[in-house]
Write a structure and sequence with these properties.
about 240 residues, mainly alpha
Length: about 240
């Protein structure tokens, strides 16, 4: 420790080992003024300083491992980025392919207008249904000879195309021709075997009359058919076999 002299009144005391520090109002040496400080050295070190502290072989080994870790990290980030881009592209494709939601034509109209439009639509649907029913009845009159009940045949006749109707009419005509050939001899005289066959002939005549006279009821048409073919009607009444 440097010796204190009048020309050197300040000195630094280092590496002291103190067992105790006492507090007092006044020290024994009134000329001594001592300032005590406590400090801990910073022991942290940067990576660069750490590398510099190693020998060349150690530094090369550490740098090699660090570079491998950085390369693996960069590859993982690159793979994740590629996957995200691929999924984003698929989502965009699905969004474009998704069918558009049907537009609600009534969303911007008032309740009154909407109710009026719905009422008109109901009227149109009723007219269409009535037309389909009338058409089906007209078609049924032409193919009545087919061996099917009316309630079974009517739904088919409502949706049948003209080509299908042509086939059905030809089939019905063939059946009628067969019945006519069976019911008449070469002279044209009716010789039906049963009362049912006689009635069938009169009924078919009535159906044809209904087609010729729109609005005529079946009863009126049947009466006219009996008047036109009185001989068949007489045989039917008698139940000739």
């Amino acid at each position: 420790m440097p010796v204190l002299t009048p020309s050197n009144p300040v000195a630094a005391l280092v590496n002291l080992n103190l067992n105790a520090v006492a507090l007092c109002n006044e020290g024994a040496n009134s000329r001594a003024h001592i300032l005590l400080t406590k400090r801990k050295e910073n022991k942290s070190m940067s990576f660069e300083d750490f590398i510099k502290a190693l020998n060349p072989e150690q530094a090369e080994l550490v740098n090699s491992h660090v570079n491998e870790i950085i390369a693996a990290k960069d590859k993982a980030i690159s793979d994740l980025t590629d996957n995200v881009n691929a999924l984003t592209a698929k989502v965009d494709t699905l969004e474009k392919a998704k069918p558009a939601e049907p537009e609600d034509v009534f969303k911007n109209v008032s309740p009154e207008v909407k109710a009026h439009i719905e009422k008109l639509q109901g009227t149109v649907n009723g007219l269409i249904a009535a037309q389909e029913e009338t058409l089906a009845k007209e078609r049924f009159a032409k193919v009545k000879a087919l061996p099917l009940a009316e309630d079974e045949l009517m739904p088919v006749l409502k949706s049948a195309s003209p080509a299908v109707m042509g086939i059905l009419e030809k089939a019905a005509a063939a059946i009628e021709a067969g019945l006519a050939a069976k019911g008449k001899e070469a002279t044209g005289e009716f010789v039906g075997d049963t009362a049912d066959e006689l009635y069938t002939m009169l009924e078919k005549s009535a159906r044809k009359i209904m087609v010729e006279n729109t609005g005529l009821s079946f009863e009126s048409a049947f009466t006219e058919a009996c008047e036109r073919d009185a001989e068949t009607y007489k045989k039917y009444v008698k139940g000739v076999k």
